[in-house]
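_Backbone structure tokens_
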Amino acid sequence: MAEPVRKQKKKTVRRRRPGLLSIVAVLAMFVCLGLFVLALVQIDLLPSHILLTGAVILAVSLLIYVILWFKFARKTAARVICWLVAVALACGFFVGADYLKKTDEVFDNVTNLTDRIANTVSLVSLKKDNIDNVSDLNGKTVGTVPEADPEGIAKGLQEVQSKASVSVQDYPDVISCVQALYDGEVQAVLIPDNTRQIIHETDGFFEFQTDSNVLQQTVWYTDRTKSAANDPDSVADITRDPFTVLISGNDSYGSLNENSRSDVNMLLTIDPRTQVVLITSIPRDSYLTMSCKKDETACSPVDDKLTHTGLYGVGTTESTIEDYLGIEINYTVRVNFSSLVNLVDAMGGIDVEIPEGLEVDTFYANGTEGVKAGWNHLEGERALAFARERHAYQDGDNQRIRNQQQVMRALIDKIISPELLFRYPALMDAVSVAFETNMPADQIKSFLRYELLRRPNWQIISYAIAGEPDTQLSGTIGSYVAVTIPRPEMTEAARTLILMTENGDSADAIRSYAEAHSVDAAGSLSVDQQRAERAAGMGEVYVPEEDAGYAPVYGTEDDTSEDDVLYEDAGTVPQGNDFSDPEDDAGSFEYTYE
């Protein structure tokens, strides 16, 4: 008899419900996505339609991922992998939102000019007098110049008298006050610090920086007036209209809320239509009439070196250059030594390649280790010294410009490298205090949006104005100093190049004009002038044999003012320097970033 057929039970697959950890991971992923999208909206770097489309695609993609995960991931290993992916996405969105938040804060920091300006007065003694502390001035005399800064001198003197019993002797100007210090009439002087930093430019006080001690510095603050705020002359559309930016490099470390000399003066004229950037360099010692139309309370219209205009604020530098070239500057950017040091360090250093013959054992600028032939990795301080070095090179200022361009290219290479992602927070912290600009944040974002979407192929052309060495009266110091008299034909050429860029001329036309009006084309300097410039580039002295009067002495003791010169009797200057067959630089160069 056949066995009865057993009825087989149908197996049922029980679908596991998502666990608590899975649900938490999914919620975290969508919350972090929301934070990321919100950060993108707030930073406003992407057009609305691209942002909306991207957000929808991301949200739908994640939703599909979650459905597939919960429906088909049955094995433990698959569920763990899906959970880890969700956590990784949540972390990625959260970090991205944080990066965007930091970036947005940078825009606010660099465009939010402080309402207060720092002012400093310094109490200075001579090292030979062995006065190392304020208390050492008990029973001694302090020289002051009340007219130089009435409020600051009063505050500084009050602080001095709280620490020592001193007599006070007033002088009509800083030079006579410092002379009294050297003559022993006073044992210390209380003077504005921005004036202290340029005293060594004056005949007879070349060694002041190395001869003196700063015993005390009193910092006080004044409100930034409306005129001192230096409002921009904004263009209507920064992605379509040409504009000019002044880059003012201050010769100081630390905060940017204190005025100091403008040792780097570069104009960037940018035309987004033709994708041309013209960089115009103006010698720091150019002898110009100071313009005070940006802040009439800061200065008086005297003749002085361009670098001294920075002592009265970037607005004074801007208006002086505007009047000199007959152009309009739309925006300003201020940087200082700390800016470059902090940026390079935040990026983990930069790499520069040094050709054979341009090695430097030790940088004059700050005494740091130099560079060897081949590739060199530079941290912040060495990068700064490399960008400032002049005395070590036979080609002097021309080589310094090349070094600065190489540093810029190395920074750009770092910015576009994947390594930046790991250093992004540190970089944003550095950028937030690295520079100060009056360009509104919305215009910076508009230009960055243009750069991200259009990826323009910028043609960058440089032109440098040359000049003749001379000695003229400094309105700031009140004595004669070494200056540069800009060559009129090169001044006019610089103005024409800026107007050509603004008018939409092609890069080839602008480049051709720059080359045709360079130093060589404008007319070579005399042999003696060329030898003097070559000597200056090496930190040495060239004295023509027929010169029976005065000779310029180039010093390197205080490289914060490395181009300043003093004048002393030619008979005391060592002779015999030979700088035969000098060569002029072309005066312009061009390169391309893609």
